[in-house]
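Hello,

Our lab assistant flagged a job as stuck in the queue for most of the afternoon. It eventually completed. Since we weren't sure the result was trustworthy after the delay, we are filing this so someone can double-check. Below is the sequence as submitted and the structure that was eventually returned. Let us know if re-running is recommended.
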Amino acid sequence: MAHPGYDGMWLPTDQDPRMQAGPTRGERECLVGYLEHYRQTLALKCDDLTAEQLATRAVPPSNISLLGLVRHMARVEQSWFRRVIEARMDIQRLFQDEAEDAGFTFPDADDDLVRASHALWQSEVAYAREVLERTDLDAVVDVHGEPTEVRDIVVHMIEEYARHCGHADLVRECIDGRTGQ
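-- returned structure --
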């Protein structure tokens, strides 16, 4: 059976932007490295697809699609970095309306919606990077009345992306047969 891509992989290993040049040094570099790896993985899963493909809900009855995952992760980035770490609870959460289902439900997908969704996600990622750059991992923030270190939020973000990248693997494989590395 022929595998799409590079024997089923996204890129040749030496061209994978997620591959680090060497071992990490210290906790912050390690945690940020894993978070960036999964952010890039979600972006790779969305590469070279049409709006219709990105909106495909490939694992019925779930409403998970690649476009929904991008929108959902914009919401997650915004919530943890703006609302929780910066304690800006006055900001309304993205896709808060019940009909939007945390970003997974959206109108018919077209190129404009795809561009807007990716731009929103990338802007929230960029903002989150800035917040993380200036915030000590030992800083304590309030999470639902519980004091929580920022490092725990970063670990949670890694877990959130890793879980959803697993979903993205399944959706992408249903769309065009490509599996992940």
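-- support follow-up --
The delay was a queue issue, not a problem with the job. The result is valid. The chain has a mean pLDDT of 89. Helices lie at 4-7, 27-46, 51-54, 66-85, 111-133, 150-176.
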